């Protein structure tokens, strides 16, 4: 695996390859990231990953300074997974001057996770567009665990006419159902044992919808109450349309998704479960 930290070096290395599949990350890799690297190989002969902890997507109360940096271990995992090129720039390389031009997503950036992380999706969209311009991939892969991020980036790519296919990778889970996340490291042993409840509750909401329940607001309230009875501090549980994450009507037959963000101790966990009423899953 070749590692490049400068934009000119990365562009030169990329030009030696044809079709490229790209997986952007912030490092501190786990099996969910590696699954995306493996899937990327099915889309292109050359797999490129990036590691960059993007300050623009962290708010003043977020964990930028304590976000785990595990570069050497990350490189070993990427090499084992067969990644061809790694782009690992420093801040001065990607932001040599204050970033004054930004990608400003539509109103959805202020809803759901965006309500609790102001500026987050603006920062994500800006850095991803910048990385796309450096790597120039034909395919880019993002995990479905960050469902709102995936939708924002897919729509950005379409509306800006970028020649890139966006692929959503399925959420990778531990055996007990907990979605793998870098922030799971913040959980104590007792909290780790409690954490799978989030996925079970979201699955229960899906079961209710598939069973014909159409009082979506009540399902959301009941899910929040159940979490809070077990010590969680919940930002939201929301049933939305998969296509645009807008609030569905009770009569909607299109695919839905139930999303949640909730704190357990020091860890803010997010998860989602897709609901396809037409196909019964």
TrEMBL record:
Protein's GO biological process? pantothenate biosynthetic process
Q: What is its EC number?
A: 6.3.2.1
Catalytic activity annotated for this protein? (R)-pantoate + beta-alanine + ATP = (R)-pantothenate + AMP + diphosphate + H(+)
The UniProt keyword set, sorted, is: ATP-binding, Cytoplasm, Ligase, Nucleotide-binding, Pantothenate biosynthesis
- Location of the active site: 33
Q: List residues binding ATP.
A: 26-33, 143-146, 172, 180-183
Cell location: Cytoplasm
Cellular component terms (Gene Ontology):
cytosol
Single GO MF annotation: pantoate-beta-alanine ligase activity
- Pathway connected to this protein: Cofactor biosynthesis; (R)-pantothenate biosynthesis; (R)-pantothenate from (R)-pantoate and beta-alanine: step 1/1
Residues that, per the record, bind (R)-pantoate = 57, 149
Q: Please tell me where beta-alanine binds in this chain.
A: 57
Q: Is Cytoplasm found in the keyword set?
A: yes
**Chief location category:** cytoplasm
Q: What else is known?
A: The reaction proceeds by a bi uni uni bi ping pong mechanism.
- What PANTHER family does this protein's entry cite? CYTIDYLATE KINASE/PANTOATE-BETA-ALANINE LIGASE, PANTOATE--BETA-ALANINE LIGASE
Question: Which HAMAP family does the annotation name?
Answer: PanC
- What is the recorded function of this protein according to its Swiss-Prot or TrEMBL entry? Catalyzes the condensation of pantoate with beta-alanine in an ATP-dependent reaction via a pantoyl-adenylate intermediate.
**Subunit note:** Homodimer.
Family to which this protein belongs: Belongs to the pantothenate synthetase family.
Q: Which NCBIfam families match?
A: cyt_tran_rel, panC
Record's protein name: Pantothenate synthetase
